[in-house]
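Sample entry (315 residues):
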Amino acid sequence: MSVQLVTSPADLRDIVPAWDVLARHSLEPNVFYESWMLLAALEQFSTGQVAVLLVWQDPSHTRLLGLVPLMQAHSYYKCPACHWSNWVYTNCPLGTPLIHRDYAETALLGVFEWLGETGATVFSLQNVAVDGAFFQCVETLRRDHALLLDVPQQWAHSLQHHFSPVAAVKSQTLWPGEVLQLEQWIREFTQLEQSGWKGWRQTSSAYPPQQQAFVEEVMRAGALYGQLMMVRLTLHEELIALSLHLTGAEQGIFTLQAAYNAAYADVISLTATPDTTSRQIATLHLSTRHRFSKPLMHTVRVAKSVYRYCTSSHH
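Predicted structure, serialized as tokens:
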């Protein structure tokens, strides 16, 4: 096994074929960490502080077993520490690393051993589904190595949204693999997005240019990979809504964004509904082999408990 920390996007582009194979064999699908998606995010949102950890089967890099984008902080809950965490960018609701399903424990152990070599005190994983196979793999690592695992809170999050049928509203879908009218769909989406009304979020501000550029790049890259799906709604031939969905390399479908015509807010409110299937998402904090790791996490646990007790007693 060989572990490699890559800081240059150019070096990451060199391993895209192995990366794409990993995405097709991942323990859990996560389109937000697939090559075409993460490279676009690094280009638009990274400030040079993001690195990508690669776990290879051997030093000759014949097979990629794991991939996780990382950021380093120098504190953990304001306590001085070498604190590594996965990187979740704007529009990234899921932070589950890409781990090969046939080598899941080996890949995760490679990450853990690398953390020990770097002197990491705590490792955090943001926006991870705790109702899936990856979390079970983390639990196995915790038991086998007597680690501490903190899961402060969980929340339900729908990773897919859909439109409910409404009389007189027509629906049209751009299916994965269809690219002939892609530029027209992108133009329509951009025009609706810039009009500035958000249906599911109920906000009135359009995304900034940097984020809009990211979304357009993702649409084109996703179409080339055959993983882009878009749904448009029209009412009396007038475009009222457009949603953008991404399919995983092997399985899964994720809603990235939706744009709406502000003039039809009442109609859209009836059609835009979250998918009934949601995932339990959480941030995980895992101890390392560092001698101060467990004492630090225990201290933070106690401090948080005291804080909750004091604040609740005042109410």
